[in-house]
Here is the input.
Amino acid sequence: MQQLSPAGLDLISEVEAFLSNEPPVPHFGGLDERFDYLVAYQQRLNRAGLAVPGWPLSYGGRGLRPRDAAAVSRALGMGGAPELINFVGTDVVGPALIRYAPEKRLKAWLPRMAAADEIWCQLFSEPDAGSDLTNLRTSARAEGDRWRIGGQKVWSTWAQFARYGLLLARTGTQESRHRGVTAFVIEMDAPGISVQPLETMTGGAEFAEVFFDDVSIPSASVVGDVHGGWRIAQAMLNAERGPYAVRRAAVIGGTLWRVIRDSRTRDLSSDERQLVAIAFTRFRLLELRIDRLVADLEAGIEVGAETAVIKSLMTDSEQATYDLVLRLRGANAMAWSNDATGVEVEEYLYSRAASIYGGTSQIQRNLIGERLLDLPRELA
Ligand SMILES: Cc1cc2nc3c(=O)[nH]c(=O)nc-3n(C[C@H](O)[C@H](O)[C@H](O)COP(=O)(O)OP(=O)(O)OC[C@H]3O[C@@H](n4cnc5c(N)ncnc54)[C@H](O)[C@@H]3O)c2cc1C
Here is the structure.
């Protein structure tokens, strides 16, 4: 872990004080209850100045250096704090907007995003465009000073609760692939948008299908340049695979340490000991890579294709941690009830998605081969 500045050490005490005043996360009766709780939690965290500490003051942050902001995330996650409900906004969309959207819009959007007063979603994937986003077909057609949107997105996290979405739509020909794509900020209550929640195997409908039936939006909805949406998409994917990992890894680490602590009170079989060692080793590898990431961010180095390595390590670590959780909870995990073990089983099921969201593990390995190691590109 990086050396903290004296201000960074004070921040850790601040996080500990915040967490000591937080009631334990309750067991939820359903998705809406969970959603409401997590919105209120992010609001409290934001009031304490700890939701987006690395953002500038004018956007609702505290202007902390990357290493101090990372220390806050680590202290929260390791202390058992839940994930931010608006993480798609704060950790995926927000960083790209900060780079590409005008100051005036940022001042309107970002403080409310940080406070979870307005939830954001990411509208990239389509039924025939997931791994290969260049195949997307949702179209945006210019008409006077407006755009008309038609098509469908899928797997859009929290879209049913979202006030805004960052939409990728085709503005060029289908053949123009990534060169004919534009990014838009779209208000999710615009006439012609319908959202159909999709249930996952956890039992919750955390994502949704989103349909656009001739939706009319103003020309000011474009982020960056017309046909220039690909670099905004890349900025968002890099943020999700890179800096967001600091926050997510801390949540994984918090879980892993709790499980290891609990397992010290009983004899483990040799298989269980193997799983502990595997989960611990994978987490250490992730932590070390994240230390390097934070050092790069601190030095002002832009993150790029190497985020595929971080995403891969994060997936391995998350899945090994929850494999261990499930194994150590033994027969109790079979009785998937609304208690602490039930929550862990739900988290185990969610961990299976880690090798899909933000780009699948196979795609990360392709990126590592082609972009980092300069291996021949895969056959078309
Ligand atoms: C929990 C969760 C949340 C999500 N949230 C969002 C969201 O908020 N917004 C959003 O836009 N999307 C979201 N997604 C969608 C996610 O980005 C896609 O599922 C992912 O990119 C894969 O696309 P796909 O599902 O279409 O699978 P496909 O692209 O059809 O892939 C199917 C399989 O083929 C493999 N494959 C495909 N191409 C190659 C290749 N070239 N080489 C090797 N293997 C290949 C894949 O690895 C995968 O195993 C979410 C997904 C999940 C699971």
Remarks:
- The longest helix spans residues 270-298.
